[in-house]
TrEMBL record:
Descriptive protein name: Peptidyl-tRNA hydrolase
Keyword Transcription regulation: no
Gene Ontology annotations of biological process type: protein quality control for misfolded or incompletely synthesized proteins; rescue of stalled ribosome
Annotated source species: Micromonospora mirobrigensis
Binding site residues for tRNA: Y20, Y73, N75, N121
Keyword terms of this UniProt record: Cytoplasm, Hydrolase, RNA-binding, tRNA-binding
Length: 196
């Protein structure tokens, strides 16, 4: 269910702090930062939640965006997201989580609404705090770790040099996907981007 006039809550999942900035787990923050730049908004600390928030509109007179970077660390992301969804009166169907995804090869993007969390602690926390799973996920493929590397260590490591060559382009495309979800809907976005 969506509210045509209400804002969209776009949550970039990640961990706060400079030491995490380039991690695979922080790709949601990267996309949120890019979207803020596109709508001419700046992140600032929100008074009602442990999060940085930037507000703007998609295009002239377009949908309102509330961009969110939780500052609680990934495992506790849901608390600030639920507080902000309540504060801005955003229905579950207008919450978009942008996150890293181990089960998708690097460079691929997938969109879905609802479903499981696939072991992603940020999504698990969001589902619990929002008391529902029917929010949109923009899944940024980071691929599986090489050899026997622990997946937790893998997502908390920086992108490899060869991956960084494409990273800016992929973050840009992920931001396009978020905008498409908001302006066109999930299914048309899947049709447009899933083959890419």
């Amino acid at each position: 269910m969506t509210d045509e006039s209400g804002p969209w809550l776009v949550v970039g999942l990640g961990n706060p702090g400079r030491e995490y900035a380039g991690n695979r787990h922080n790709v949601g923050f990267m996309v949120a930062d890019l979207l803020a730049g596109r709508v001419g908004a700046r992140f600032g600390r929100h008074k009602r939640a442990v999060a940085e928030v930037a507000e703007g509109r998609l295009g002239f007179g377009g949908p309102r965006l509330v961009l969110v970077k939780p500052l609680t660390y990934m495992n506790l992301s849901g608390g600030p997201v639920a507080a902000l969804a309540q504060f801005y009166k955003v229905p579950l169907g207008q919450v978009v989580a942008v996150h890293d995804e181990l089960d998708i090869p690097y460079g691929q993007l997938r969109v879905k609404c609802g479903g499981g969390e696939g072991g992603h602690n940020g999504l698990r926390s969001m589902s619990r705090s929002l008391a529902g799973k029917d929010y949109v996920r923009v899944r940024f493929g980071v691929g599986r770790p090489p050899g026997r590397q622990d997946p937790a260590d893998f997502v908390l490591s920086d992108f490899a040099a060869v991956e960084r060559k494409e990273l800016e382009f992929l973050v840009d495309r992920a931001a396009d996907v978020v905008e498409s979800v908001i302006t066109r809907g999930v299914e048309p976005t899947q049709n447009a981007y899933h083959g890419v």
